[in-house]
Amino acid sequence: MTEARDIPLMFGEDSPLLDFVSNSDLVLWINKMEGPPPYKNIQQNDFSYRKHKKQKEEDIAICNCKYEANDPDSACGERCLNVLTSTECTPGYCPCGDYCKNQRFQKCDYAKSKLFKTEGRGWGLLADENIKAGQFIIEYCGEVISWKEARRRSQTYENQGVKDAFIISLNAHESIDATKKGSLARFINHSCQPNCETRKWTVLGELRVGIFAKQDIPAGTELAYDYNFEWYGGAKVRCLCGAACCSGFLGAKSRGFQEDTYLWEDDDARYSVDDIPLYDSEEDEPATNLPKNSHSSKHESNTEVKHDYSMTSGDGSASEHYSQSTALAVEQLGSIKMEGIAVNEASIEVNEEKKLYLQDTSQMFAHKNAMISRIRSNTPCRNYHIAPSPKPKKRSARYRTRRPKRLAQKQVDAKLVVQLLGSKEAQEEVFTNEGKKKQATSQLESLYNEIRPAIEEHERDSQDSVSTSVAEKWIEASCFKLKAEFDLHLSIIKHVACSTRRAGNRATPEGMENEHGMKYLTDQ
Ligand SMILES: C[S@@+](CC[C@H](N)C(=O)[O-])C[C@H]1O[C@@H](n2cnc3c(N)ncnc32)[C@H](O)[C@@H]1O
Predict the structure, then answer these.
(1) pLDDT at 222
(2) 419 is a domain residue
(3) According to the UniProt entry, which residue ranges have a biased composition of type Polar residues (predicted)?
(4) Which residue has the higher pLDDT, 8 or 140?
(5) Which of 208, 275, 481, 501 gives a 20 to 30 Å CA spacing to 522?
């Protein structure tokens, strides 16, 4: 067996860890050395999931560069048509032949880098030589899988307790999973102020992801890129990049950042839910009369951020406060005095209905506000706003790695509700509000269909956030829908709580249709 101390902690083309997954000695060595968890080192994407596309001859892009010995840039340098369109030249077709410099992915023309152990962020990658701005550093290799498969795997990994996420988006339909197979690029951590960026190149007909230097990077510097549009982690991970403009969480702006993500709960500061600042300005805080908490309302500096995350006590934290406020609101509404309501079986129905409504409302608001928070966080250098959903409960050690079941969002059944209402005015108000809510919902849905290609295009092809106008449109429509929902639920609560008669006593506007074309209920 190879002696552990003889193996350098550097992984290059001749890395001793190449294919180590099938080499039990090396796996043992890694475990003994407390190195990164085993993975298979690959230098080209793995196409086990689907076949590699076959490039048709007519699709091969041939540049018109001509190699001239006295001009090094002549052989597919910056002016090469293929370089300009982020396409690598195809060997055998490039007029510069062996001199072609535009085959960096194919030739694994990587910058030197090496692994190191970070503080609090697991393993990371360092530049092991001076790197120039714009230089290709390394390809992000892994298994090319569909989005659906990525979702499935991401869930499986979480269930298995794999906390480091290695899935990035490749295009609108596919992702690259470097969890089990990947290059050293899988160790590059996220930074909100990165020195690298991802760029997509077409190589022999397939899209590939490269890590490129955004600036000159001196040897010994940690390499980092912004995960925002690449992130596919399920769990929310507290960002410890330390940048002044830190957005708070990894991939807070990504498409893969799911609304029902949760926080890991253990001793790792990155996954701690305690003491998480919810709002970065006082205006953002909900109008509650709860005591203000200093952690919640101030944008925190890097050092403060690190300090705060290490705290494990949640007492007085903003997240605690908010969850209390939600619980308090529900409790108050649930305990509305039912004065005047005839005490018969109907009161049980009323209570049941109110419970249903209350559960609905808190869920819906948490869910919708999460959406808004995500869009708002598109502005750079801003703390990610967590939805004002109740703070996740601490899971027991036994269930630590399991994901909580997603609660199905129940809808208020307006017909059922009006059966509980006493007056036709009440029924009318509920129906009118329901109509408005439906209208707002369909408006939002059609807006989403309209802007989806723009969102995907932005996410796929650039690191820019979705344009402000699109985001604003979306926010406006979301707010409109929220308001419509709120009005509907408020009218239900108001009328159910204040109703003095049973449904049977009410006057029904028989056969009447309201402005939304909905029929009022008639007594059956
Ligand atoms: C692609 S991996 C990077 C390599 C990883 N550090 C490791 O040890 O394998 C992404 C994971 O690294 C961690 N990570 C990366 N950047 C981070 C950051 N800025 N703050 C906290 N954790 C980070 C998170 O656990 C994330 O899921």
Answers:
(1) 97
(2) no
(3) 310-323
(4) 140
(5) 481
Give a yes or no: residue 398 inside a domain.
no
**Do the beta carbons of residue 43 and residue 139 sit within 8 Å?**
yes
Which amino acids bring their CB within 6 angstroms of ligand 1?
A: 36, 121-124, 163-166, 186-187, 189-190, 233, 237, 239-241, 250, 270
Structure tokens at 520: 């009022």
Which domain covers residue 219, as residue numbers?
39-225
Residue 489 pLDDT class (50, 70, 90 cuts): confident
Question: For residue 204, what is the domain's CATH number?
Answer: 2.170.270.10
The string of pLDDT tens digits covering residues 335-380 is 333 333 333 333 334 344 444 333 333 333 333 333 333 333 332 2
Pocket test for ligand 1, best of 11, 157, 162, 190 (most atoms within 8 A of CB): 190
Report CA(303)–ligand 1 centroid distance (Å): 19
- Residue with structure tokens 């196409």? 47
Number of domains in the chain: 1
pTM over 0.95: no
Query: What average pLDDT score do residues 237-251 get?
Result: 84
Q: How far apart are the first and last CA of the chain?
A: 84
Distance 180 CA to ligand 1 centre (A): 15
Of ligand 1's listed atoms, the one at least distance from the Cα of 224 is 16
In a domain, 196, yes or no: yes
CB environment 296-315: b (16+ within 10 A), e (fewer) = bbebbeeeebeebbeeeebe
Say if the ipTM goes beyond 0.85.
Answer: yes
What is each CA distance from 203 to 84, 206, 207, 209, 481, in whole angstroms? 14, 5, 6, 10, 45
Strands 224-225 and 189-190: parallel
114, 121, 246, 270, best to mutate for ligand 1 pocket (most atoms within 8 Å of CB): 121
CA 113, CA 220: separation in Å to the nearest integer? Answer: 9
Q: Is residue 486 part of a domain?
A: no
Task: Identify the residue whose C-alpha is closest to ligand 1 atom 13.
Answer: 121
Q: Which long-range contacts (CB under 8 A, 24 or more apart) does 438-447 make?
A: 438/516, 439/484, 439/516, 440/477, 440/480, 440/481, 440/483, 440/484, 440/485, 441/481, 441/484, 443/477, 443/480, 443/481, 444/477, 444/478, 444/480, 444/481, 447/473, 447/474, 447/477
DSSP secondary-structure letter at 202? E
Q: Which of 114, 138, 164 to mutate to test the pocket of ligand 1 (most atoms within 8 A of CB)?
A: 164
